[in-house]
Amino acid sequence: MAAASDDDINLVLQDIVAASRVPPKSRPSSVKPAVANLASLAYERGLPPSALAQLVDVVAAPSLLDQASIGALIRNLYPAGAVPRDAVLRVVAALGHGALKPSLGVQAALLRWLVLVFHVLGGRAELGRAYPVLFNLLDTAAIRPRLAHLLALITRRKHVRPFRIQALLNLSRQTGNDASLVGLLRVFKDYYPEIIVGEAVRGKASAFKHPDAQWRARLDEIQAAHLQRTADRASAPHDGFRVHRPLNRTQRDGRVPAVHTSHATEDSVTLEEIEGAASFVRHLDRLELPNQLVAVLADPLLQKLLLLRPAAEAHRRVANWLGAVLRDVLHGDADEGALWEVLEVVRDFVVRTKTLPPVLLGFFARFFALWSGAGRRELVFDVLGHAPFHDFQELYTHIFQPLEAAIQDNTSDTLLALLALYTTLLHHWTTLLLSSAPLPPHASASINALVRHVSLLALTLLQTRPGVATESAILSFYEQSVRLVTHAQLAPFIRIELPPPPLVYNLLFSGSLATLSRLCAVLAAYKRGFEDAMATRAARHHGGGGSPRIDALEYDRAYVNTYNGFLMDACNCFWRARAFSDDSANARGCMLPRTTVAALTAYVPAVDKAFALASLFSLSHAPALCLQSIRRVRELEDAAMETDRSIRARHAGPVTQSSLSRLATAGGIRLSWQEYRIDVLETLSERGLPGVAELLKNTMTVLKNSMEGRSSTQGTRSHVASTQRMGPQGLSSQ
Predict the structure, then answer these.
(1) What pTM was estimated for this model as a whole?
(2) Which residue, of 497, 520, 555, is where some domain finishes?
């Protein structure tokens, strides 16, 4: 579809190019419909680079097109990507006086277009090299305002020379202090504040304003749509190695000062002079900080500079500035909308830099004490998700508890938003810990406190908003916590904080197979974490000595037995057909009261004598697993029937050990009970649901060996150990 639209543009463009060479009276048809059609296509999709360059050639040279058509084409020169350098040079070549130049009105329109698309120009360096040519055209009154604006955008320290200052002063006096010349003089003075320009820069002349904010907004929409279609991120219009100067500064951008450096010396370099990554690296040590360090909130280049050359003063100024904004809102000097606009800028800064300066926490502590919880709370969540790694209890007391109190409205949506916030925070803290050497002494305590707090939140959520979406959000948090206790670098220092048993068993009996698989994967990962911690402790005891941090990872018998209970109950349900049994060591019967188990045991046969409560949560019968299990049997039957025409019976399901024996006798496929169950586990893993298999393999060593050594031959499959030999292997406490 995109190629067809570009072809449409090229076809219409060729008609216009041909018409531009023919006198109006000699044309077979009017050119105006083609111009209107091209303008519409450019407005809808933007012009590809080749079409844009060709159209600029048409309008930048004398042609037989009427002025109205040329004006319409220039007004719709919307580039879909970066403006090619050839188009920029063609506009520069069209400026000036002469028979081969377009009219001064067209030249002014082209200069206005360069200002409009300046942020996506691919030929800024060419404009810099053409600075002398452009400057010498300032005496042409018809194009002076647009030309001065363009010069103000491309002016750098190297362009400011005494002879140019003198020329500007003379021209300004001759024109009665023309506003555009005064604005350009002010740009010159920014680079050299010590220059003497007299009264020339005084008065009410305003800074250069964007020519057409609506045109720029439409261009941004076109470019965003083009990037989404082509996934060409390399041609993104914003350059992180240039000072960010949005030509159509929105109100929120306008509240944050722009990067502006004065009082620079000849030996220093300002951020405004940086033109790319190479220039930034070359001058990193000589770069001067701008006047307003608060500009770091909105300028990517200044953010990079302060990350590489940290300045605590900058963060203090940002905190003071935010505090002033908050005071203005409280005192009625600014509306609440102003505060949210500023917080949006803060959010963008924090998300880009992945850093929330600790001094800003003081601002949020004051803010939450006054906030009603209304407004754009997602901005607050995005910012606090990057809070620095501190003691969680302290953070909770001063930041998160006031936040929860402010936003609490007894709705499950708010609880889910808080859960997402804490998941983001844990992910951020994991990143910080991986880059820390050594780890903070409070690392394990802070992580465990966060997990305990979220565990209570998760239990509340399961009660108020049960469902797969809630279960998925809860498991996302625990999956993040597992990375801490299984990572080779962090595991020796981070203690495993188990989910509360009610949470585990609620998820274990979820109707979602994805939930069940993810929970089992988390529990299996905990087993590896426990084993690594115990192996480390055993090695330390044999070798002597040790670290007090590792001593904190010692787990007492009751804690380990709680975890072993999860393993035993899962195996009893899925593998051993002993659901809710508490007869084995560590088995907790899934925390069901014995009176309830007895009542259910008597009730199930009353409904159907073929069933028993103890086997209703096996691979064949569990609500989350039964469909996948019988589907796998159907696949095995289909594959067998393709090669063996003697098979005449199918399994009706659900599969049991005795039903498989009856199936073989009745002329169906021959499948052992062990082979069937292992095949189901392997199939689940192949389909992206490996959790149940991982948990059972990590719990039962014989099953693990059987699955890993299983070959495709029937002879090897017959050696799978029997059920009685596959008892769960828990952990022993140290």
Answers:
(1) 0.70
(2) 555
